[in-house]
Design goal:
By secondary structure, the protein is mostly helical. The chain is 63% helix and 0% strand. It is built from 5 helices and no strands. Helix 2 packs parallel to helix 3. The longest helix has 22 residues. It is globular, with a radius of gyration of 14 Å.
Protein backbone atom coordinates (compact mmCIF):
# COMPACT_ATOMS: atom_id res chain seq x y z
CA UNK A 1 0.00 0.00 0.00
CA UNK A 2 1.25 3.45 -0.89
CA UNK A 3 2.03 5.72 2.09
CA UNK A 4 -0.50 8.32 0.93
CA UNK A 5 -3.16 5.62 0.69
CA UNK A 6 -2.39 4.56 4.25
CA UNK A 7 -2.85 8.17 5.40
CA UNK A 8 -6.31 8.32 3.80
CA UNK A 9 -7.21 4.99 5.43
CA UNK A 10 -6.04 6.28 8.81
CA UNK A 11 -8.22 9.38 8.45
CA UNK A 12 -11.18 7.25 7.34
CA UNK A 13 -10.77 4.99 10.35
CA UNK A 14 -10.74 8.04 12.64
CA UNK A 15 -14.10 9.10 11.24
CA UNK A 16 -15.40 5.54 11.59
CA UNK A 17 -14.36 5.39 15.25
CA UNK A 18 -15.99 8.76 15.94
CA UNK A 19 -19.25 7.72 14.26
CA UNK A 20 -19.18 4.40 16.10
CA UNK A 21 -18.65 5.97 19.52
CA UNK A 22 -21.34 8.59 19.00
CA UNK A 23 -23.77 5.95 17.70
CA UNK A 24 -23.51 4.21 21.09
CA UNK A 25 -24.18 7.30 23.24
CA UNK A 26 -27.43 7.10 25.20
CA UNK A 27 -27.30 10.48 26.94
CA UNK A 28 -27.47 13.48 24.63
CA UNK A 29 -26.44 11.66 21.43
CA UNK A 30 -25.30 13.79 18.51
CA UNK A 31 -27.06 12.17 15.56
CA UNK A 32 -25.70 14.84 13.21
CA UNK A 33 -22.16 13.78 14.12
CA UNK A 34 -22.91 10.11 13.41
CA UNK A 35 -24.21 11.00 9.95
CA UNK A 36 -21.38 13.44 9.17
CA UNK A 37 -18.59 11.10 10.25
CA UNK A 38 -20.20 8.14 8.48
CA UNK A 39 -20.16 10.15 5.24
CA UNK A 40 -16.59 11.31 5.89
CA UNK A 41 -15.41 7.74 6.45
CA UNK A 42 -16.70 6.64 3.07
CA UNK A 43 -15.42 9.76 1.31
CA UNK A 44 -11.91 9.14 2.64
CA UNK A 45 -11.99 5.44 1.77
CA UNK A 46 -13.02 6.28 -1.79
CA UNK A 47 -10.14 8.75 -1.99
CA UNK A 48 -7.78 6.08 -0.61
CA UNK A 49 -8.91 3.74 -3.37
CA UNK A 50 -8.29 6.44 -5.97
CA UNK A 51 -4.84 7.24 -4.56
CA UNK A 52 -3.93 3.56 -4.58
CA UNK A 53 -5.05 3.34 -8.23
CA UNK A 54 -3.00 6.46 -9.02
CA UNK A 55 -6.21 8.08 -10.28
CA UNK A 56 -6.57 11.85 -9.90
CA UNK A 57 -9.67 13.26 -8.24
CA UNK A 58 -11.00 16.75 -7.56
CA UNK A 59 -11.43 18.31 -4.13
CA UNK A 60 -15.01 17.24 -3.53
CA UNK A 61 -17.28 15.76 -0.89
CA UNK A 62 -19.54 14.23 -3.56
CA UNK A 63 -19.59 10.50 -2.86
CA UNK A 64 -21.31 9.64 -6.14
CA UNK A 65 -18.75 11.59 -8.17
CA UNK A 66 -15.93 9.81 -6.30
CA UNK A 67 -17.67 6.47 -6.82
CA UNK A 68 -17.87 7.14 -10.56
CA UNK A 69 -14.14 7.86 -10.64
CA UNK A 70 -13.27 4.78 -8.56
CA UNK A 71 -15.59 2.28 -10.26
CA UNK A 72 -13.34 1.62 -13.29
CA UNK A 73 -10.58 0.57 -10.88
CA UNK A 74 -12.88 -1.48 -8.62
CA UNK A 75 -16.04 -2.43 -10.54
CA UNK A 76 -17.56 -4.31 -7.58
CA UNK A 77 -18.14 -1.07 -5.67
CA UNK A 78 -20.66 0.12 -8.27
CA UNK A 79 -23.22 -1.93 -6.31
CA UNK A 80 -22.87 0.61 -3.48
CA UNK A 81 -24.34 3.51 -5.44
CA UNK A 82 -27.63 3.65 -3.50
CA UNK A 83 -25.81 3.17 -0.18
CA UNK A 84 -23.45 6.04 -0.91
CA UNK A 85 -26.33 8.10 -2.29
CA UNK A 86 -28.03 7.93 1.11
CA UNK A 87 -24.83 9.13 2.83
CA UNK A 88 -24.05 11.89 0.32
CA UNK A 89 -26.24 14.66 1.83
CA UNK A 90 -24.46 14.42 5.17
CA UNK A 91 -21.24 16.00 3.91
CA UNK A 92 -22.45 19.57 4.28
CA UNK A 93 -26.15 20.13 4.94
CA UNK A 94 -26.33 18.32 8.27
CA UNK A 95 -23.64 20.57 9.74
CA UNK A 96 -25.78 23.71 9.68
CA UNK A 97 -29.00 24.85 11.33
CA UNK A 98 -32.20 23.91 9.56
CA UNK A 99 -31.34 20.27 9.04
CA UNK A 100 -31.16 17.84 11.94
CA UNK A 101 -30.62 14.10 11.90
CA UNK A 102 -32.90 11.74 13.78
CA UNK A 103 -32.03 8.52 15.58
CA UNK A 104 -33.26 6.63 12.53
CA UNK A 105 -31.09 8.74 10.20
CA UNK A 106 -28.06 8.07 12.39
CA UNK A 107 -28.71 4.33 12.58
CA UNK A 108 -29.15 4.07 8.81
CA UNK A 109 -26.09 6.22 8.11
CA UNK A 110 -23.95 4.08 10.39
CA UNK A 111 -25.21 0.85 8.79
CA UNK A 112 -24.47 2.31 5.34
CA UNK A 113 -21.02 3.34 6.53
CA UNK A 114 -20.29 -0.15 7.83
CA UNK A 115 -21.41 -1.72 4.55
CA UNK A 116 -19.34 0.68 2.46
CA UNK A 117 -16.32 0.49 4.74
CA UNK A 118 -16.29 -3.30 4.57
CA UNK A 119 -16.46 -3.30 0.76
CA UNK A 120 -13.84 -0.58 0.34
CA UNK A 121 -11.45 -2.23 2.80
CA UNK A 122 -11.83 -5.45 0.81
CA UNK A 123 -10.94 -3.59 -2.38
CA UNK A 124 -7.87 -2.17 -0.62
CA UNK A 125 -6.93 -5.66 0.66
CA UNK A 126 -7.27 -4.62 4.30
Amino acid sequence: MRPETAEWVEKAEGDYRTASREAEVTTLPNYDAVCFHAQQCIEKYLKALLVEANAPFPRTHDLLALLALASPHSPAITALQSTFGRLAPYSVAIRYPGDQATATDAATAFEDCEEGRTALRLELHL
